[in-house]
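The methods section describes the discrete structure representation at length, but only in general terms. Since the whole study asks how a given chain folds, the encoding of that fold should be made plain. An entry of this sort, consisting of the sequence and the corresponding backbone structure tokens, reads as follows:

. . .
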Amino acid sequence: MTPLERKILADISLDAPWALIEDYAKMPRWRPEDVNAGVDHLVAALKRLKVPVKVHEPEIYLSIPIDASVTVGNSKFRAKPPSMSISVPGGIEAPLIHLKSNPHAMRSYTRDPAEIFVDGGPDLPARVRGRFVVMDGFANPGSCSLLEEWGAAGVIAVNPGVDIHWGTCTTIWGSPDLDDLPRKPKIVVVAVNNPDGKQLMAMAVEGKSARIMTEMQEGWFKQKLPVVHIPGNEDKDRFVFVHGHLDSWDVGVGDNATGDATMLEMARVLWKHRKALRRSVRIAWWPGHSTGRYAGSTWYADAFAQDFDRNCVAQIDCDSPGCRWATSYHQTTTMSDTETHVMRAIKDVTGIAGKSKRPNQAGDYSFNNIGLSSYFMLSSTMPDALRAEKGYYAVSGCGGNIAWHTENDTIEIADKSVMMTDMKIYMLTTLRHAADKVLPSDWRATMKEFAKTIDGYEEASKGLADLSPSRKALSALSRSINALYAGIAAGRVKPKAANEALRRLARVLVPINFTREPRFRHDPAYTCPPLPTLQVAAELPRLPEALRGFGQTQLLRGQNRFIAAMDEAGEIVARAMGR
């Protein structure tokens, strides 16, 4: 670390962030009026710290769970409806059917039946039609939307522990537009705990019927959205974007009061040291993450899309830092171009080596279709051995604590020591992205990722796909990008030209790797494979013979899109090198 970096990290304190955590531990923040109260509390804290803040007030579409139950005969089971389930206060009745699901798919957002269900087969849609499907896992958008498509009357997700987890079951990302509305859930969905779920599974085998009641509050709500802008001193228009959700389930300490507090302290310290920044830093706290499937961040991405397109150099998601026992960084979310940057900061702060994972189609990654270099969603987590020792199942936040999305996510989940470490990691990565002469994006790593993906798809195609046109286009771009970095190192490519190229490469290479939809639209909230336009190559052997020609046609069009993207990226590099 440089002396300046050490000085700024040494200025980090737990005083303001821990005070916010203690306050939020007493403030539920999932109903719209409570979220606005939480924003007011944060804004007051920022003003006390003399950090300027602007509060937007968008109207976003939310679905707030009120109550739910499952009744079979004289037995009534407690349940929670995920956000966006339909509301049936009077209840509806249908026969039960139990479908055994794969344990590894419990948290997955996949819609692939072969990945979700153990007892699949071509007759599965007919078997579930008109029934309540009882299945292991969480009420995820992929499986729920697939079962709705098959004609299921509803879904009962059997959570893996004694607690019931809140969640969201829609595939729609953010507030729906007219094109999204057909995907709005039309079936009833609830979650139950594991002991009750086992009873319901047995009742399903006995051929019994159930009555499901849900009560939801749904519609458009005005929500407050605070943003801090810290101006840079050289390239002021360009900015690094740090963000995280302020709304939570119940008091949500580990998910995400700790993240809110981390960003509060980042705002204080970076405002104090703003003269050290070349580029600006913008920090935002979201409403609508939990009850709107990222409606707050999606609104902001839409409302300021042109600014993001022209000026944002990276987005950094701050979700669930500072949780107890979360001392490992072996599942740190980062895109490949920022992996070296992130791992270097983790090593500099902790002395340990981290490991990265590809960003899921989840969190507030509402900027992929614009094309932003991105990292973090979750940073620290507990070591696998400790999780196994405690008998914890995998969850998507709280540093691996199974209090995630339950009433148990209280003050005990936060840890001051882990919090300090994570704040330093977030601060250091943000500082370097805002202060370094050349942006820390390494697109050579992305070229290697693309090559591995293409090789994997072609191998999986079992000779049915020829991806040599894509490989040829990628090789040409790889050579150009290698030459660009050599030029930067030798001083032949000046920092201004280099940064412009690195920023613009993200606009091309991120969407081609993480999105199916066109730019400025939002992909559905289910798994997007790497290089999705080429992924059909791996599916060809599984397609019936009658569908192979259609699959080949799709692959041809997908290769065209990929090759065009490689050519566009090559032109960006050529301009930077004066060719």
Q: What stands out?
A: The first strand starts at residue 54 and ends at 56. The mean pLDDT is 96.
